[in-house]
Write a structure and sequence with these properties.
Blueprint: E1 2-5, H1 23-30, E2 34-37, H2 39-42, E3 52-55, H3 59-63, E4 68-71, H4 78-95, E5 99-102, E6 113-115, E7 123-125, H5 129-136, E8 140-143, H6 148-154
Parallel strand pairs: 1-2, 1-5, 5-8
Antiparallel strand pairs: 3-4, 6-7
This protein binds iron/sulfur cluster.
Length: about 160
């Protein structure tokens, strides 16, 4: 069993209310090889919702209380984000999950690049808060951009 960002496999949990269909990733879920979770919704945020970015530091800074997650209206959504991340990390540990496929660029699920906190569309190096927390737990994190080989293997297509 792997963890997957729920929005990558047809779940309506994105901030903009759009649904992403991905046949292979949805197949992983239907075969019970992937568990789809959305940390932001699990933390209590709605669908749709205002987009949010990490402001004033990195994901680790948010975890350590030195930076915040703010939405585009200036509302502080750090607590909801951290609540959802803690829930997902606890679930991953309980189920012994060792691998995740997460959505790029999200302040929560992003890996490698995230938006810079100015809501101007500028990307910077960094991870989302869930990604940072999972990496600390030794979880292998892939994104929708580099998971093709892993997915093929999980679906026994090679
Ligand atoms: S990127 Fe993560 S937090 Fe954002 S909608 Fe997808 S699963 Fe939820």
């Amino acid at each position: 069993m792997i963890l997957i960002s729920a929005c990558l496999c047809g779940v309506n949990c994105r901030h903009d209310g759009c649904i992403i269909e991905n046949e292979k990733l949805q197949k992983l879920v239907s075969q019970r090889k992937a568990l789809p979770l959305c940390p932001e919704v699990l933390g209590g945020r709605s669908v749709p919702r205002e987009p949010a970015e990490i402001v004033g530091g990195s994901a680790d800074d948010v975890i350590n209380g030195f930076a915040k997650v703010m939405d585009i209206t200036g509302k502080d959504v750090t607590d909801e984000t951290i609540t959802g991340v803690l829930y997902v990390v606890a679930t991953v540990k309980k189920l012994g999950i060792k691998t995740a496929i997460l959505k790029t660029k999200s302040p929560t699920c992003g890996m490698g690049k995230i938006f810079d906190g100015s809501f101007s569309g500028k990307l910077i190096d960094g991870n989302g808060i869930l990604t940072a927390a999972l990496l600390k737990e030794g979880i292998d994190v892939y994104t929708e951009d580099n998971c093709a080989e892993l997915v093929k293997k999980l679906l026994n297509e090679e």
